[in-house]
Amino acid sequence: MKKIEAIIRPEKLNDVKIALSDLGVNGMTVSNVSGFGNQKGYTQIYRGQEIVTKLLVKIKLEVVVSSKKIDEVIEAIVKTSKTGEFGDGKIFVYDVVDSVRIRTGEHGEAAL
């Protein structure tokens, strides 16, 4: 099993959720996060003062999938969230040793 953490633009969340649902991914965790990378934030004017905002609002999507599905899930996330501009995000992949469904006690991929 693999855990995928994807940091994406907030406006791309619905497209990514639909694409993952079409692949049979039936569970995910979504968090509102702030951060910056190459984009380095942005500058805005507030009451005549220039304000530099260093942290940008992003969405962190976490999903655990079978190792067999990893490539198609990553491809779906990239395809649906890519704009070609700075700030499209990143994907991180981790090995998952085990998972347990608390309600039933199932282990491994059966718990997904």
From TrEMBL:
Q: Which InterPro entries match?
A: N-reg_PII, N-reg_PII-like_a/b, N-reg_PII/ATP_PRibTrfase_C, N-reg_PII_CS
Record GO terms (molecular function):
ATP binding; enzyme regulator activity
Recorded GO CC terms:
cytosol
SMART domains in the record, alphabetically?
Answer: P-II
GO BP terms in the entry: regulation of nitrogen utilization
- Entry similarity comment: Belongs to the P(II) protein family.
Q: What is this protein called?
A: Nitrogen regulatory protein P-II family
